[in-house]
Q: What sequence folds into this?
């Protein structure tokens, strides 16, 4: 990658972060000395970040010994090693002792973090003070915490032969996105009434096949969390729907189906962050139906390309599919250019001017 060559880079991420940013990580590994630390799921977040929820408190108590040993292992592994960059792809909570160790060994090391989820879900803003540069995909978090705004990188679809679907959504259904599935069912029903062809698929948590221990754990969390209780109710109501999948589709198959679709539907919990699904769709000339009103503030927003509905489906108007698509140049968000922005080696036109 241009301008990032022969650098010593220490990267922290979790499994989801690694999968989301795999292409960028592979690119860095080709031309640099890259060390990767993937967070174990038992490594819990700070209690303040989770709002001191009872579930998080119990989890932290159970995993306290493991977490202490894990931090000691990382400090030992870092030792006196030299790094030019320390990069964190968060959904993370970085122990200050680890950063202090890195900085004591490397006074000139640049510490960077990219938050790919919103602080309204888990508030990792405590990490901000430890880093030289902080980026987030959520514009509201960028404004509130005065950090850099940078959308997800985009990638081009492979060329396809024609369009097979008018509407497409391939995602997951979980307590974190409890209203996604009922709203997709509503959109699918309305699409049929307008003779539109849709491809909606969601992987889901099949509670009926949970082990006894896992089910007890789920019921315990449900007693403390409204979204988990609602998911249980919706699961019993919709579990036989043909829209639900027990196994995840592979990423290349998802991209192929999306490339054959005219419009991508995105239903998320209310947050300002724009998902990779939406960014890829717009960069590839696809229209988007979304329930996130914050997208109106983006420099790439166009009412010809993006239809905003609410969580009940109000505002759904398929006539917008007939309007000509207005193209926007997303080339500076291709992964090679995106990485340069992250490392501060290229201007970021998406960033928000803070007063």
A:
């Amino acid at each position: 990658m241009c301008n990032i060559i022969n650098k010593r880079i220490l990267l922290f991420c979790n499994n989801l972060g690694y999968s989301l940013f795999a292409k960028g990580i592979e690119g860095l590994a080709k031309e640099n000395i890259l060390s990767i630390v993937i967070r174990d799921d038992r490594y819990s977040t700070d209690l303040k970040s989770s709002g001191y929820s009872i579930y998080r408190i119990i989890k932290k108590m159970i995993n306290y010994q493991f977490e202490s040993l894990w931090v000691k292992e990382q400090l030992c592994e870092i030792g006196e090693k030299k790094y030019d960059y320390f990069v964190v792809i968060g959904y993370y909570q970085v122990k200050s002792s680890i950063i202090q160790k890195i900085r004591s060994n490397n006074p000139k090391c640049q510490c960077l973090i990219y938050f790919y989820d919103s602080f309204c879900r888990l508030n990792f803003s405590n990490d901000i003070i430890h880093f030289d540069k902080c980026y987030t995909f959520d514009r509201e978090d960028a404004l509130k915490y005065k950090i850099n705004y940078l959308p997800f990188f985009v990638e081009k679809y492979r060329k396809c032969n024609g369009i097979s679907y008018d509407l497409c959504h391939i995602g997951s259904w979980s307590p974190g996105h409890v209203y996604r599935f009922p709203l997709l069912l509503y959109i699918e029903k309305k699409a049929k009434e307008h003779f539109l062809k849709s491809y909606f698929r969601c992987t889901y948590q099949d509670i009926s096949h949970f082990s006894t221990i896992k089910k007890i754990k789920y019921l315990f969390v449900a007693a403390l969390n409204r979204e988990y209780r609602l998911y249980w109710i919706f699961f019993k109501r919709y579990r036989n729907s043909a829209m639900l999948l027990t196994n995840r589709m592979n990423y290349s198959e998802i991209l192929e189906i999306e490339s054959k679709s005219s419009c991508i539907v995105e239903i998320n919990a209310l947050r300002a962050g724009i998902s990779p699904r939406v960014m890829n769709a717009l960069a590839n000339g696809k229209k988007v139906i979304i329930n996130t009103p914050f997208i109106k503030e983006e420099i790439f927003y166009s009412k010809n390309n993006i239809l905003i509905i609410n969580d009940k489906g109000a505002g759904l108007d398929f006539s917008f599919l007939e309007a000509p698509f207005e193209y926007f140049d997303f080339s500076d968000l291709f992964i090679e250019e995106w990485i340069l922005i992250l490392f501060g080696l290229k201007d970021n036109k998406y960033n928000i001017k803070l007063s």
Q: What stands out?
A: The mean pLDDT is 89. The two ends are 33 Å apart (CA to CA). Residues 54-78 form the longest helix (25 residues).
